[in-house]
Amino acid sequence: MTTRAEDDPGAAATRALLRSALRHSGPRCVALCGVSTAATAAALVLPAVLGRTLDLLLTHAPAGRWVGACAGLVLLTALLDACGTVLGGTVTAGSTAWLRGLVGGHVLAVGPRAGARFGSGELVARLVGNAAQAGTAPGALAALLAALAGPVGGVVALALIDPWLAAVFLAGAPVLALLLRALARDTTECVTRYQRAQGLIAAALAEAIDGSRTIRAAGTAGRETARILRPLPDLSRAGHRMWRVQGRAAAQAVTVAPLLQLAVVAVAGCLLTMHRLTVGDVLAASRYAVLATGVGVLVGQLAGLMRARAATGRLAEVLTEPAPTYGCRQLPSGSGQLELLGVTARRGGRTVLDGIDLVVPGGTTLAVVGRSGAGKSLLAAVAGRLTDPDEGEVLLDGIPLRDLRHADLRGAIGYAFDRPALLGTTIEDTIAFGVPTPSPATVRAAAHTAQVDTFIHRLPHGYETPCAKAPHSGGEAQRLGLARAFAHPGRLLILDDALSSLDTVTENHLTKSLTDPTTPGTRLLVAHRAATAARADRVLWLDGGRVRAVGTHAELWGTPGYRAVFGGGDDGAPAGVRKGGPGALGGTANSGSDGAHEPRGTENEPGTTTGTEPTDSGIDGVRAPRRTESGSGR
Q1: Is CB count within 10 Å lower at the N or C end of the chain?
Q2: What is the pLDDT of residue 4?
Q3: What single DSSP character describes residue 470?
Q4: Span 556-588, pLDDT tens digits
Q5: CA 165 → CA 64, 155, 168, 310, distances in Å?
Q6: Segment 8-57, tens digit of pLDDT
Q7: Max CA-CA distance within the chain?
Q8: What pLDDT score does 619 carry?
């Protein structure tokens, strides 16, 4: 027999997050509940005091103290209500901030997988709008508990005046309970639809903002506006249904509640004629009947709680995306040898990397090349554990990345990207962004190495120039990203197409620096230019998510499929190696060719190799297992 949580994991996650939010706001929620309950208690005492005061006034007895008590209770109720309002706002603000910190931190811990599943716009909508609504849950629950004290106390007070009054009210109470239950069920459904439509609009808007230049250049602003607003009818229907549900519940409550109040007053009148009640008792009974039928307050509190619960469910859905865990092992001394053992990674139901086996000796430079969609960027992400493979293992100096402490992992691996996010207040903060924070001298040395110091010195305040006031090109942004990577040296540096926007001269300088044998650490470069691949110690050729071959650029250049990766021309051929010329890798190797050898294997067709194409034998440094591959399988 399954448990309730097993039947509905989403509901279980929502309840768990609500409990966590309540624990975080526990002391303030207790204070809010206490203040609200005290205000309700004062409101419950007031009718009895009013009734007693009226009886004394009607009999011309001294009633000064009772009148003073009435005034004091009114002032006390107003003061407690004001304190409850302040406490409620404090609880909501604190809970909202905690939820945003929790979910925001989880999104950053999950990494790119969170954006791939939910979309950046959807995540922003949940962190901003849904977190604000979910943050009202602890306060709404505390206020609801206090609001329940009103009807319960009203019924008890009616029973104390006369049991018949309570019996009359309880006869119609099941109708009110059914109304509240239907309200909770229908409100949850329509609020969930409303918030989902909001998220779709936010996601589409974020995509349009990110691609605003393309939209403007294509002249499709009207079509994109229609796409963004496509969920608007669903939003409208959900909103109208939400108001209809609450309006119907309020109307039904307004219909039922006066009937119950009238029945209580009528019975009280009959008891008055029988001299079982006084006039003051009738006044008190009429007030208690109003408190006992306070469905309007309950409807508002319950509707707010249901909206908060639906928003909490959307936050809990983000938290169900598992974040990577880290071990407790430290890196031993080593040169940065990188190993990928049987690495397979899937995205969107498609195998992007298929059984990658690779060893990159420490201190070497490996260029990763391949056609678009071959899996180069995913390989770069897996190599530095920005994401985990679905199968296989990645090791650095013999230690699995999963077993490393977070600080050791991030301190040992540096990254630079094709479109770096320039985070930080100033240019210096941007380059120093990371842990540990490098010294100003290290920042300036890194900027010099990245060929970006000249650009920085042209800025109004140099390194202290705010990033928002430092207009830059794509190449300058890439150089700032490279400087950030150089400022945090580690054993492994991964450049994911981080040279693509640079001019040829700058790229040549940087590539020469990166591939210098005296440069410490291991470098993995995702490359699209033959000149970059030619400078690397070895080249990994990816084709369809598999290792097609590993070797030097000169050794691989003789394969037509490899040349096709760079456009099929001879511009990237090593010096002295030309198609059809002496020593040409694509033709017959002359005995006098200077160092150029024909690859051992036969190129049958694109995507198919047989024999022993350069993968292991005769190629030192980077090793990949020898295998026979075809376009359809290994």
Answers
A1: N
A2: 44
A3: -
A4: 998 999 999 987 655 555 544 444 333 333 333
A5: 30, 8, 5, 39
A6: 667 888 888 988 988 888 888 888 888 888 888 888 899 889 888 888 88
A7: 131
A8: 38
- CB atoms < 10 A from the CB of 154, how many? 26
DSSP state of 401: G
Helices (H), 136-274: 137-161, 163-210, 212-218, 221-228, 232-273
Query: How deeply is 436 buried, as exposed, middle or buried, from its count of CB atoms within 10 A (0-12, 13-18, 19+)?
Result: exposed
Give yes or no for residue 352 having a pLDDT over 90: yes
Contact between 294 and 150 (Cβ < 8 Å) = yes
3-class secondary-structure state, position 23? helix
Gap between the Cα atoms of 95 and 365, Å rounded: 49
Q: How far apart are CA 58 and CA 549, in angstroms?
A: 105
Task: State how far the Cα of 451 lies from the Cα of 84, in Å rounded to an integer.
Answer: 60
Give the model's pLDDT for residue 509: 81
What lies within 8 Å, CB to CB, of 481 at 6+ separation is 416, 417, 420, 422, 498
Consecutive H or E run containing 496: strand 492-496
Burial bucket for residue 49 (CB in 10 Å: 0-12, 13-18, 19+) = middle
* Whether this model's pTM surpasses 0.70: no
Q: How many helices (H) and strands (E) does the chain have?
A: 24, 12
SS (H, E, C) 235-303: HHHHHHHHHHHHHHHHHHHHHHHHHHHHHHHHHHHHHHHCCCCCHHHHHHHHHHHHHHCCHHHHHHHHH
Asked if 574 and 557 touch (Cβ cutoff 8 Å), the reply is: yes
Distances (CA, A) of 57 to 45, 52, 90: 19, 9, 44
Local confidence band at 618 (pLDDT 50, 70, 90 cut-offs): very low
Which letter, b or e, does each residue of 395-417 get, where b requires 16 or more Cβ atoms within 10 Å of its Cβ? bbbebebbebeeebbbbbbbbbb
Per the CB < 8 A criterion, the answer to whether 509 and 451 are in contact is yes
High-pLDDT (> 90) share of the chain, %: 23
Residue 200 has pLDDT above 60, yes or no: yes
pLDDT band (50, 70, 90) for residue 605: very low
Look up tokens 């950053």; give the residue.
108
**Contact present, 283 and 47 (Cβ < 8 Å):** yes
As a whole number of angstroms, the distance between CA 165 and CA 156 comes to 10
Model confidence pLDDT, tens digit, residues 371-387 = 988 999 999 999 999 88
Cα–Cα distance for residue pair 120/300, rounded to 1 Å: 33
Instruction: Give the amino acid at 364.
Output: T
DSSP for residue 435: S
| Residue from 526, 606, 530 nearest 573 by CA | 530
pLDDT reported for residue 552 = 93
C-alpha torsion sign, points 209, 212, 215, 220: positive
The Cα–Cα gap between 192 and 242 comes to 10
How far apart, in whole angstroms, are the C-alpha atoms of residue 377 and residue 524? Answer: 11
pLDDT given at position 250:
66
CA 347 to chain centre: 18
Per-residue pLDDT, 153 = 85
C-alpha to C-alpha distance for 248 and 428, rounded to whole angstroms: 60
